[in-house]
């Protein structure tokens, strides 16, 4: 599904190249649950951003669903966002001016899903996440864990084939974190959604099926999780 | 999508109430100012455009040599209308109109009123269609004693009776029959009258009129061209019409041209025989001002919206990651600005409607909003759209350009965008500073004209018209005596015409040493005895006209200083002067120059001679011992007793002098009013920028405070940048303002010299206002608890 070949990313500063990623080559298949781990500044988030096409690599080839997306124009990229990729952020990044319901609805509107279909999907998601009673609240009226649930619900609304999560539990207490991680695991196992998450926590990484250890921009270790 | 965007826009506006208030307030003020100015411009623009044939009607306009220069006047020979009608093929209709400003007594039963009477050929009613209530245009002016009145005159004279066929007495002697009643003239009509009489009647009253040749310019003439007539050909044919009739006049040029009636109100200034603007210049200025104020308000909105960008950046990032296109995001911001623009327009509109009566009152005009006219609604809608789009465009472009990964990681606004904002603020402030400087200069010029020594004493100086019994010298003498005895007045003298108005001119005076080909124009005014005593004008040489010298009633003259200079007389007193067929006249005194006709232009050379028969007004020096109202009451009661047929009207000269500055006052009021609004809106903009900076730098400030900076250090740090902007604005604005005001002052003969203080004052004011505005915000930030800002991150 995702094929990275010799991906490099550096920032040139006064002629000195500061490498963030070096010769990253890996393949992630449909249905995998990959955790990217590594110390601060190792390039985890950059790798995730490149996978999410939020950043472009300096060198290298990136194939997404068999298509070269290294230099994709904006229109095509937006198309991919709408249909294939769901983002979950560490800081939730819900839109403050929208209610829970509207936040979940937003990607469906961009995707131009019909109103009946929209209503049923949102109702389904709210139901699944036990948020029905909270659908008219604004993000600042929710706890962090609840906000992240909305964030995930929003990511799922467009029925993506892959979810990219950048430290989804970084701002949460451990109980809430566990809840989110079990949810990811369930989504991965029951619905076959590919999940790629960046995390610091060994424990969280154990929920997944594969761990990529990154240090100094290089993949140091690529191991499967033994259940 | 649209509905959601709208809903979110509303929520956004509601959530940031302060911002919304500043934004809507600024836009509303800007729009209200802009609308008000445009309404005023439209009012002036609409003058004389209401006639059906407006584009075919012209004034016959005359260029003639006057004091060595080409002067232009609408006064033409009375022979022109008929001759042109017969001889020029392109002309459909022609009508003579008597010179305006002729107020006469009209009475019916016990109702006596002084009304403005105009005499015109019957074809006048064909050329300019009037709205008839009674009567019809064919017969209205058919007989010499017919009279056409307007509705309010009818109401005054006849109450609610049908006036048609009723009799009116003219000047207490002639009986006239009301032949027609028309609706009141709209205020935006140049040719004004209460009463319209046939030209034939005018000739009866002024028998000399018929005998005048081609050289006498005594009336206005309106010409209507045929629908298929070629303007250029007719204009060329009429050029030498007069000199072809009488070649002697070639010496004084006497060339005619056609000037559109519809342009007369706005283009009434002529230079060198050519149209050279007039009121239109002021209107252009107002249109420019209107656009500036609206533009300043829009800049404000841009600044405030982009200042909020920190808060909005994340939203943009998330939306983009969710699959929103840039256009959708731009749409969102556009909807917000349009929504705001609609709200602002609603407020502006209400403000406008409420303040219109005051505005009308202030400027003595009558502007009404015509709700049934679609251009008005088009203007309103397009203003909403333009404002919304203009104000929303930059925020939309700027905010939608954010790159998701950057803003989601933590927003750092690039310095580039700030410099655009800074440029906008500089632009805004430069415009405002220009307005402040202009307002100060206009104000001081008016004060300069107002406070200029007039050369006569305008306090307690009044005038009444000489009519009815007062045309008999013995009655007039009795009246003056009675007034003096009653203690109402100190002195009185007859005078040629209204003291603050113009008067007659001649080129027929010669003096010792006058060059042969000199055709200098000299003004002349008749007066009675005690001229200097009444008006307070100083006699600088010789003496005043005096009843003790019998010659003074026949052959004595007074000159003013300008006349002495113009004639180049060394010892004016005793000089003998020749004037037409009169016996030789002797100069007995020189009066100091005084400005009574115009405050702004040069004093004209003038001679004064004794003649109470040709004098039309009586000047009265009211007694300072009595209150003004007591004196006026006394004059009224004496007058009613001795001259019962004519209601007396006491006019104060000081009032007439104040009216001379009407146009300057208008400019001053508008520039002050809208200049201060512009400044106010600009301050809102600055406040926005200060908010932005404070938000941006709150962390930096907290760190500095933790490191030991005190309040004043931080205030200086924050205010420094803003003061730089204001100073740059001044550097830009001052030279521009200098050029503008210097150009404006050019038209005044008496003007202030441009000194640095208006500029310094503007500099000082702008810096002070900016300092106060910015400090309000920065002080809050500087005082804030450092921990609060540092805790998050």
TrEMBL record, chain A:
Keyword presence, Transport: yes
Entry keyword set: ATP-binding, Lipoprotein, Nucleotide-binding, Translocase, Transport
Pfam family, one: ABC_tran
Domain ABC transporter: 2-227
Molecular function GO terms recorded: ATP binding; ATP hydrolysis activity; transmembrane transporter activity
Gene Ontology cellular-component annotations: membrane protein complex
Taxonomic superkingdom: Bacteria
Recorded family membership: Belongs to the ABC transporter superfamily. Macrolide exporter (TC 3.A.1.122) family.
Protein name: ABC-type lipoprotein export system, ATPase component
From TrEMBL, chain B:
MacB-like periplasmic core domain residues: 20-240
Topological category with respect to the lipid bilayer: Multi-pass membrane protein
Span of domain ABC3 transporter permease C-terminal: 288-394, 673-785
GO-annotated cellular components: plasma membrane
Record key words, sorted: Cell membrane, Membrane, Transmembrane, Transmembrane helix
Pfam families, alphabetized: FtsX, MacB_PCD
Main location: membrane
Keyword DNA damage attributed: no
Location of the protein in the cell: Cell membrane
GO molecular function, one term: transmembrane transporter activity
Transmembrane segments: 21-43, 285-304, 333-356, 376-403, 424-443, 673-694, 725-745, 757-774
Protein name: FtsX-like permease family protein
């Amino acid at each position: 599904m995702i094929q990275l070949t010799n991906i490099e990313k550096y920032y040139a500063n006064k002629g000195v190249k500061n490498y963030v990623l070096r010769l990253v080559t890996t393949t992630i298949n449909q249905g995998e649950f990959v955790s990217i781990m590594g110390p601060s500044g190792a390039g985890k988030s950059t790798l995730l951003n490149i996978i999410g096409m939020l950043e472009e690599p300096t060198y290298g080839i990136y194939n997404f669903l068999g298509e070269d997306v290294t230099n994709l124009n904006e229109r095509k990229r937006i198309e991919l966002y709408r249909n294939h990729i769901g983002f979950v952020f560490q800081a939730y990044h819900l839109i403050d001016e929208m209610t829970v319901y509207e936040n979940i609805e937003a990607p469906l509107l961009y995707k131009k899903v019909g109103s009946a279909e929209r209503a049923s999907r949102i109702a389904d998601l709210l139901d699944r996440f036990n948020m029905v009673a909270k659908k008219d609240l604004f993000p600042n009226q929710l706890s962090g864990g609840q906000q992240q649930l909305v964030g995930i619900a929003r990511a799922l609304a467009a029925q993506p084939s892959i979810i990219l999560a950048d430290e989804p539990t970084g701002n949460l207490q451990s109980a809430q974190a566990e809840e989110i991680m079990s949810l990811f695991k369930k989504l991965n196992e029951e619905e076959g959604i590919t999940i790629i998450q960046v995390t610091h926590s060994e424990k969280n990484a154990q929920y997944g099926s594969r761990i990529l250890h990154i240090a100094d921009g290089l993949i140091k270790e690529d191991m499967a999780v033994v259940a | 999508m649209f509905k959601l965007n709208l809903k979110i826009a509303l929520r956004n506006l509601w959530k940031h109430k302060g911002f919304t208030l500043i934004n809507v307030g600024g836009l509303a003020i800007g729009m209200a100012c802009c609308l008000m100015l445009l309404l005023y411009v439209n009012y002036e623009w609409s003058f004389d455009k209401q006639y059906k044939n407006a584009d075919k009607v012209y004034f016959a306009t005359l260029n003639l040599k006057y004091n060595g220069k080409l002067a232009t006047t609408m006064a033409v020979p009375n022979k022109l209308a008929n001759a042109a009608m017969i001889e020029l093929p392109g002309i459909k209709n022609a009508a003579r109109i008597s010179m305006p400003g002729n107020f006469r007594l009209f009475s019916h039963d016990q109702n006596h009123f002084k009304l403005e009477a105009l005499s015109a050929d019957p074809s006048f009613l064909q050329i300019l269609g009037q709205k008839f209530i009674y009567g019809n245009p064919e017969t209205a002016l058919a007989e010499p004693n017919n009279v056409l009145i307007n509705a309010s005159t009818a109401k005054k004279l006849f109450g609610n009776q049908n006036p048609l066929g009723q009799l009116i007495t003219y000047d207490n002697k002639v009986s006239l029959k009301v032949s027609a009643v028309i609706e009141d003239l709209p205020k935006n009509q140049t040719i004004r009258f209460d009463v319209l009489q046939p030209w034939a009647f005018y000739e009866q009253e002024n028998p000399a009129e018929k005998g005048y040749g081609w050289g006498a310019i005594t009336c206005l003439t309106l010409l209507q061209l045929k629908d298929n007539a070629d303007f250029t050909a007719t204009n060329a044919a009429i050029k030498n019409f007069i000199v072809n009739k009488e070649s002697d006049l070639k010496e004084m040029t006497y060339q005619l041209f056609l000037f559109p009636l519809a342009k007369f109100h706005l283009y009434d200034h002529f230079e060198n025989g050519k149209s050279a603007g007039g009121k239109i210049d002021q209107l252009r200025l107002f249109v420019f001002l209107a656009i500036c104020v609206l533009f300043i308000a829009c800049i404000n909105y841009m600044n405030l919206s982009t200042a909020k960008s920190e808060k909005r950046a994340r939203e943009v990032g998330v939306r983009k990651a969710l699959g929103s296109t840039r256009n959708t995001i731009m749409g969102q911001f556009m909807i917000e600005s349009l929504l705001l623009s609609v709200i602002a327009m609603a407020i502006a509109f209400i403000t406008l409607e409420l303040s219109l009566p005051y505005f009308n009152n202030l400027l003595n005009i009558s502007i009404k909003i015509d709700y049934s006219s679609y251009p008005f609604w088009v203007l309103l809608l397009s203003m909403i759209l333009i404002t919304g789009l203009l104000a929303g465009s930059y925020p939309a472009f700027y905010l939608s350009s954010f790159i998701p990964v950057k803003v989601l990681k933590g927003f750092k606004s690039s310095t580039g965008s700030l410099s655009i904002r800074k440029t906008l603020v500089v632009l805004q402030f430069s415009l405002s500073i220009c307005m402040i400087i202009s307002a100060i200069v206009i104000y001081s010029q008016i004060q300069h004209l107002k406070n200029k020594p007039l050369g006569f004493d305008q306090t307690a100086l009044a005038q009444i018209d000489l009519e009815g019994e007062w045309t008999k010298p013995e009655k007039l003498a009795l009246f003056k005596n009675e007034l003096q005895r009653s203690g109402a007045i100190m002195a009185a003298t007859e005078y040629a015409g209204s003291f603050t108005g113009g008067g007659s001119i001649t080129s027929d005076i010669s003096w010792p040493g006058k060059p042969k080909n000199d055709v200098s124009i000299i003004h002349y005014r008749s007066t009675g005895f005690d001229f200097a005593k009444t008006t307070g004008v100083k006699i600088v040489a010789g003496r005043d006209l005096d009843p003790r010298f019998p010659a003074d009633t026949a052959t004595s003259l007074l000159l003013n200083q300008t006349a002495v200079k113009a004639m180049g007389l060394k010892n004016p007193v005793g000089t003998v002067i020749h004037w037409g067929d009169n016996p030789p006249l002797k100069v007995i005194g020189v009066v100091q120059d005084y400005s009574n006709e115009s405050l702004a232009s040069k004093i004209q050379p003038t001679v004064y001679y004794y003649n109470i028969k040709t004098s039309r007004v009586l000047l009265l020096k009211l007694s300072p011992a009595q209150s003004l109202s007591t004196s006026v009451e006394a004059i009224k009661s004496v007058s009613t007793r001795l001259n019962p047929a004519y209601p007396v009207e006491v006019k104060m000269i000081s009032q007439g002098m104040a009216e001379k500055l009407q146009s300057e006052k208008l400019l001053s009021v508008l520039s002050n009013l809208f200049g201060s609004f512009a400044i106010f809106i600009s301050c809102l903009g600055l406040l926005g920028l200060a908010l932005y900076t404070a938000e941006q730098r709150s962390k930096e400030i907290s760190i500095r405070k933790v490191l030991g900076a005190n309040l004043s250090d931080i205030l200086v740090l924050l205010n420094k940048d803003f003061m730089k902007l204001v100073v740059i604005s001044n550097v830009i604005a001052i030279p521009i303002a200098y050029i503008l005001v210097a150009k404006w002052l050019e038209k005044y003969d008496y003007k202030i010299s441009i000194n640095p203080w208006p500029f310094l004052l503007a500099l000082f004011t702008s810096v002070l206002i900016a300092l106060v505005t910015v400090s309000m915000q920065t002080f809050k930030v500087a005082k804030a608890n450092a921990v609060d800002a540092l805790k998050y991150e």
